[in-house]
């Protein structure tokens, strides 16, 4: 019941709690008494069937991406027999468009991440401080945006971006995408920043720090983990989005990867060159796969968004 | 009412009343500075378009001409038009089938990967693969797996004596919707699995101990402990499945464009065609408003049913 001054003692207590919690979890999940071998095997079977269902099309795609058009028509579709080649990948790199699509998607992702992380950090900080009614009301208004499906507002967005002369520009796309991602980002941010102990803010105030210094010296350093999660959430949203680029861009020089892959696959030139299409898709997932392997925990939280408490 | 030392410590700026108001004014000023960029972006690109969509649904507009007031004409048309009635039915069918395909599977898999065995953690890592792929990418992948002549399934049909696998999965009016449901499940079940995994892990072990003391077997402890304890996960996941599939667009646009015939033409597809191809933006906006209303109503139900609004702390609810 004693209010501790700094965060350190509280943190030690939390650390002591952790092993007890892990032990409790192990006893819940590992050792349910009376759980039969039959039900364990049933679980294994179900889990494995789903795993095969998840991996089979991906495996097929990767295999086909290493075929030449001729091999695609004749070779075994599921086993790597009958010759593999890198020709589809070199065809992708040689084609003029794909490089532009990659660059545009990377720009879009970086721009969106920056806007969403910076804005949600500033907004989240003010909301958790609860300094005025303004922040409380703003929070409710922003959260309402989670309920609005983006499909419902694409027609007005099309006209407004035209009128604002940001139609068919990358920064116009960044702004709209960021706006569509910001409600969930603010919710994630607020739920995380709430956990910063009040005593730390007070210690800052005792030292004479104003709002800005508190923001740069306390909130930003403490908020790094959630910034990573929100960065992944918004980066994935930008890299993979199809609808907004479809509505808000037009010219080939502003084409992003998902849209470009679709146009590429439905063009006459490649309609029957399935291996090249598959190679493009493989290349589009590769950067995310590398990041996923490195940052699994943050990815799970970023993907789960607000649905995971 | 007694000011304890702890409270005094927590508010070091306590002083004269004028100092307090000054602090409050500084807080308000900081709130405005910190929140305005977010509010401006959100207001400009979410709030204004939402209001604009509702407004347009009461007008006739084909881009070139002026916006003409239409009263309830678009709405009367929407509710009497057999075409949009059919789209509404397809949309509801897609949502219902998606719920059936996704929620039970996601629950089973979520409970499965909440377990502590090592291989389950590896499975869980691999399950998330579809969530890394763009909808465009996974649609193209599935299109080629399902390709009638040379695709992976057709190959198995020819070479492994499973002729039933050689179907025009996306080209037959009887199959296309079911095929789409399966692809959407492939894409989104992993997401819902995460919800159920978290829900299962949050169940206190004492409940299972108590059940086993009472002599409950595995099935009984599922029905009487796991299922009731997962109710919030079930509500959250179900709502998100329904909102997601009622407004679904991307996979359908890429793979079938609503066809063959009108067998996969959902409301969102209808809205896109009527708006961007036939340039009847008033009528398209009426459909858009229906989509938006569906999203908002289901979200409010979610908050009411799941206690989402009171998440983490009771001071600030969502609504």
Descriptive account of the structure:
The complex is a heterodimer of chains A (309) and B (319). Chain A is mainly α and 309 residues long. Chain A folds into two domains: 39-85, no CATH class; 96-307, MetI-like fold (Orthogonal Bundle), CATH 1.10.3720. In chain A, 74% of the residues lie in helices and 0% in strands. The longest helix of chain A has 34 residues, at 96-129. The two termini of chain A are 27 Å apart. Chain B starts with a helix and ends in a 13-residue tail after the last helix. Chain B is built from 15 helices and two strands. Chain B is mainly α. In chain B, helix 3 (73-80) crosses helix 15 (281-306), helix 4 runs antiparallel to helix 12 and helix 14 runs antiparallel to helix 15. Chain B has a domain at 82-268 and 288-306: MetI-like (MetI-like fold, Orthogonal Bundle), CATH 1.10.3720.10. The longest helix of chain B has 40 residues, at 17-56. Classes of the chains: A mainly alpha (309), B mainly alpha (319). The interface between A and B is large, with 122 and 122 residues.
